[in-house]
Every structure is written in C-alpha cells, then in structure tokens.
Amino acid sequence: MHKTILAMALAAVMAGPSLPARAQPATTTQPPVSLQSWGSFHVGGREVVISGQPVREVLFTPGGVPARVDPNGTYLMGGMYAQYMIPASPRGQVPLLMWHGGGLTGVTWETTPDGREGWQNFFLRRGWPTYVSDAVERGRAGWTMIPEQTGGQPVLLTLDNPFERFRIGAGQGSYQRGEVLPGNQFPADRESYLNFVRQVVPRFTTTDALTLEAYLALLDRVGPSVVMAHSQAGLFGWRAAQERPDKVRALVLIEPAAVGDIAKVAALRNIPVLMVYGDYIAQDSRWPTIRGNGVRFAEAVRAAGGSVDVVDLPERGIRGNSHMVMMDRNGDQVAQLVQDWLAAKGLWQ
Question: pTM value?
Fold first, then answer.
C-alpha cells in the first residue's frame, strides 16, 4: 500500500504542477496568404578587438583532429536579424516593424503557444508588410559571450518565472499550485505553457546601447515604418522614434516596460503613439509603477505637442489579458483595436 502511494506521489512530481487542461484551438479555414517577397537579412553591429586571451586547442568533432583556436582578434558583435514578408497587394502605407520583449525573440509575433496564428499573420492578412526581428544577442541575431563587451552576465529564467511575473498565475508559487488568475486569457495549460517557455532565451541587461544601434540601423535600411514594440522593446521604440523621427510614422507600444528620453520629448510631437495595457495590473507588485511611469511620460509628450492614446483593455471591455497580450486567446481582439487605430491615423487603406 505504501509503495503504491509513493509511486503515485513520484508520478505527480515528475508530471509537474497541475496546470489547466489544454483547450483545443478552434479550427479555421483562413485563405492562403499571397506574398510578393519573403526573405531575411542581418543588420547593424560593430567591430571589437579582443587581446590577451590564451590560445587553445579545440576538438570540434568526436574522433576528429584538434584545431588551434586563437580567441584574440577582431569580432563583429551587436548585429540584428530581421525576416520580412511583403503581401502581394499591400494596404499598409508603410511597413510594420515588430519588436519583441526581454528574454524573447521574434517568435513572440509569429505564433501562439497553443498553435494559433500570431500577430504577424493577423497584420499580414490585412495587407501590412511585416518585419519581425530578433534583437541583439537573441535568437538568430547571433551570440557574443565577451564579458568585456556585453558588460555583464546573461539572465536566465526558471520555469515558473514567466508564469508568475507575466501576470498569468496568481502570485508567487502559483506555477507549482497550477493557479491561474481568474479569467486569464493566456493559454496556460501545461503543454502550451511549456511551448512558451521553450521560446525563452538568455538576455543581457547591459546591451541596450548595442540594441538601440541595431534598431536604428534597421530603420535606416527599411525606411519610414510603423514600429510595434512589446515590453522591454518599449524603450527602443521610444528612443528610436526620438532619434529617427522622420522614419517612424507611428509607435504602437504593447505594455511598454520603459520610457524614452525625457529631454527629447519634443522629437515625438509629430508621431502618433498608442500605448496598450492588459489586465490585473492594479494587484501586481510591479506593474502599477511601470504603467505609472509610462503614463507620466505620455503626459510629457502631450505637453510638448504630441499625441498619445493610452488604452487600458479592461476599460474597453477586453478582459483577462496577461503581459503577453498578443498570445492571449483574445489577442486578435486587441490586434483589431490596434488595426482600427492605425487606419484612423491614415496609415492603412
């Protein structure tokens, strides 16, 4: 009897916390998307010189011949990856650049953890040329483990961290309890949540200058665009618009985690801005302050003659949104709100 109970307990531990059962996505019969072009490129980066490091021999393949590796020399770091899809019949007046948040990559926009189409598809189907990027030191942008250049160590996330920090679960320990915030729209069943965690990558908190340089290089290459930025990328959206006001036609910030340069708010006066915030913010330990900082910065932009619309989704009757708004089950409803705003600004025909 005791062996049976022990076996059941061990099975429960191995299975992980009891998250909600997976809700099957509704089957849709979306028409195919017709593209005039589809490709990718890398942009940005700077050359750096490393010296004083020991030479070593490395065996790259088991059973192979060791190779002499000299780590001293010139490296290229700080580049960025971008993938573009241009619809056959564009309706967006300019391209839509989609910038992901911290510890993530462009996958944020491509799909959802439970297999639905992501916002890239949503806006592509409406005729927007889309550019989805992987920022510096993330995903396909490449990786440079040179502490003297990155300025720090990468931050890694445990399995429960996003569940609790991204306003999916109900507070500390909620992942282990399998407790989702009431009415939460994120696909939090175990299979979907693990699909999301598989997208998480290491991030630096010390490479903002390199990242901004790369985003500016992206804008210089693509030209006038709408910038859509999520979370950490809110910083880069604000700053890029301030540094390239002639290249940013509109700024869409989905739960921006930072603000721009208060000394340069006047540079934003001709750029319409939309800020979107999800649900459960008031009861969170961090997000009331983050949102408050964003709203105060928006007020400073308005005082300088700019236009900023702040949307709190629950006030629009759109409830249950986590920090990962674009992945929530009602994400397309929010995407339509953004689409309508862009059309009202004359950026879509």
Answer: 0.90
